[in-house]
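Team,

Forwarding the record for the chain on the shared tracking sheet. I've put the sequence and predicted structure together so nobody has to dig through attachments.
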Amino acid sequence: MKRPTRIFLIMVLIDFFLLLTALFIMQGFKRDTLEISPLYYDLFKLFVAMWVISSFTMKKYNGIVQENLLGGIILLAKSNLMMTFLIAFAIVGLNLISVSRIQTLGSCALFFQLELAGFSVYYIWAHKGKREKKTVDSDKASAFKDISFQVLIVDGFLLVAAFFVMNYIKRGSFVIPPRYDQVLMTLLAMWLPISLITLKFIRPNFRDFYNSFVPYVKTVAIMASVLAVTLFAFRLFYFSRLQIFGTLLVFLIFEGAVFRMYFLFKKYGRKGEDVEFIEQMREAMGREEMEQSLEGAEEDGTVKDPVAEKLKYTLDFLSPELYGFASEHIDFHSIDRADTSVFKTDNMLNFQSLARGSLRLFINMHKVNDVRRLNRYFLEVHGKMKQGGYIIGQAHTISTHRQYFVNKYSGYFGELLYGFDFLWRRIFPKLPFFKNIYFSLTQGRNRMVSKAEVLGRLYFCGFSMIAEKEIQNRMFFIAKKTKMPSLKENPTYGPVVSLDRSGFNNDSIKVYKFRTMHPYSEYLQGYVYEKNRLQEGGKFQNDFRVSTWGRFMRENWLDELPMLYNWLRGDMKLFGVRPLSKQYLSLYSDELREIRTTVKPGLVPPFYADLPKNLSEIMDSEMRYIRSYLKDPFKTQSIYLWRSFINIVIKGSRSN
């Protein structure tokens, strides 16, 4: 027999002898006899079985030979804890109420002390004359620096949710009975330290699903073992074991589902981000194409085979109204069939083989809601088209989607369903963390988009809108390639938006407001003006860019609260002309634009003092205010502030 095998067998036999010694010592201490009753004979067998499982699972005897003094003590402690947990779990599960706690737990403690004594003797003998170098486990010491607190918080919520779900399964109600709040607090008190010990929330451990999930399984197993020991030690058998241990099982299932989603969006959700910013635009287009100019005459082109007849047949088959709508804005007789492509796809690979600059007309009958990266899609189409080429597409917008729900469902049930659907398809794809979950699960298909966002993205990617119309509960749009994609300003996102406005001395200032418009709305200002003009009060008529929540905020002045920061910075004063965009300012007369640069813009504009009804009256109002202010600032401010107070507070004037 080889020496390592002989040492291994000797260790097993000695350890078994120490276990029997501990059992008989506690039997004599508790019962004053070494005679074993049938009940405790079963307990002895349980001890031996759990000793075998824990010793070989923890690889105790191989580890003792390899570990240093501290490592060996820790290994023995882990093995004995595992044995204690397994014994207590078995006793609680088998409902062995009559088993002595002192004898059971005392045997475990005595066995551990005997093992420590035996290991100390072995260590002194094996390392006689050797000096051990002190080592520090720097990896574990620094591991806690990499804790993901987001995962920790989510995991805590999952444990609470699992407890209430199990309570509902057990009792048919989420209302917990008396004293079970203590059980929940005990679970939370155990969960945090055990999770930290098992390195459950350490970021470097998040490599792949199966290996990374091991600490989660360990945590639940240790919690179950500690609870079993606690229930046995304190005789808490009146608590429902189904609810306690069932909570841990449901908790592990919840964790598995969430962890699986995490790896899905880690694998798919962040792969190939959409083009949202100027630097990404430059990278996506390439430096050479970025410098191109679209100025010059559009291709005259002799049309050999007009697409009109073929296209009429195709579009009538897909949507009878579409051809009539499109032919009102595009002369299909001037476009050759060879310069036309018609698709019904959400996959860009299906048309990437087309030559760049080869198309005069691109039609895609698949809704853009299913396109994972919408800007990349529009940029790809932009690159395939000749100057002045047309794109025809469709989208399922927020308004058409709501109409679909109104037609299909009715009453409160329909409103409830629409609320959940709106949260999932519209809100989740916009939130930093949840959008990765959404895109990883859906690959971006069937998300809800606003009309303003679709049209704004087209402008951002180098198109100009020709027309749009709702047909069969879909918004169809026609856009024309007229320019290079935007390389001047990034689209605004988030609840607070930063807007470029004209300030004192014609300096550009950043004005901060709460978002009231859909994303990409800033690219549509010229289009909305041309289409809708201005209504009474100087605002755009029927401005579809403003969201429902945005209208509420505007009516109650909530959207302008962040502008207080501009006031504190000194960019604006309390009362003064409204800070305007270049697009809106271009509608003013040259004289007014010039004199506006001599004063700071203000939070409250002269509009609320005079209440003008059209653009001409707004310009007259601002001109009177500025001239008066330049002559007597204090008197002018006092008069205009008082008149604005009367109109806003007493008469209830509001922004649209």
